TrEMBL record:
Signal peptide coordinates: 1-32
Keyword Signal attributed: yes
Source organism of this protein record: Streptomyces polyasparticus
Keyword line: Signal
Region (Disordered): 38-75
UniProt name for this protein: Uncharacterized protein
Feature: compositional bias, Pro residues: 55-68
Domain of life: Bacteria
Alphabetical list of Gene3D superfamilies matching this protein: 3.10.450.50
Length: 188
């Protein structure tokens, strides 16, 4: 499997990728992820414009509030989908990451899903997990429902930035018994 990337896919840099990953993890419903900001955390300083007779702004040497604590439940199917896409988008955006992408597929996808993706990739000359030839700038996973031993999630991939931003949507099916992804298809 060969990944091709455009210059615009690498432009946002590592910081944007990490921010997009964290934003995606926060988008997973609270039932699968805990968010517990520290009670003792100081409030962030405001940056309001102050007049000459108002109190000075907080000193620049004050520590920022701690980052939120993120956690996930590997038993929750859509949290596993979120973990997979977080890791996959990260490795797909790095040149020479084919071995890592293959290892992620082997861990998170059923053998039948891996075969279907390989067939799709041969026909379309693109990455079957992302349904594209480059890497998205962000992703988000939304649970959709479950039944008959499977659960479904919608993965929204963000391409570009600002006014040029566009989205693609994937339907991801996960087997409840194994916890592995059994199907990735375009949703719309």
């Amino acid at each position: 499997m060969t990944h091709t990337r455009t210059l615009s896919a690498r432009r946002p840099g590592r910081a944007l990728l990490v921010a997009g990953t964290l934003a995606g993890l926060l988008a997973v419903p609270a039932s699968s992820m805990d968010y517990a900001p520290s009670e003792a955390a100081p409030r962030a300083a405001t940056t309001a414009v102050r007049g000459p007779d108002q109190a000075p702004a907080p000193a620049p040497d004050q520590e920022p509030p701690p980052a939120p604590v993120l956690s996930g439940d590997p038993e929750t199917p859509y949290a596993r989908v979120a973990h997979f896409y977080a890791a996959y988008v990260d490795v797909a955006s790095d040149p020479g990451s084919n071995a890592a992408a293959t290892a992620l597929r082997a861990f998170y996808l059923t053998p039948a899903a891996q075969k279907r993706l390989a067939d799709w990739e041969r026909r379309n000359e693109a990455d079957g997990v992302l349904r594209a030839q480059n890497s998205p700038t962000a992703w988000r996973v939304t649970p959709e429902g479950s039944g008959m031993g499977s659960t479904w999630s919608t993965v929204r991939l963000t391409w570009g930035e600002g006014k040029d931003r566009r989205y693609t949507y994937l339907k991801v099916t996960t087997e409840l018994e194994s916890g592995k992804i059994s199907e990735i298809t375009e949703k719309y």
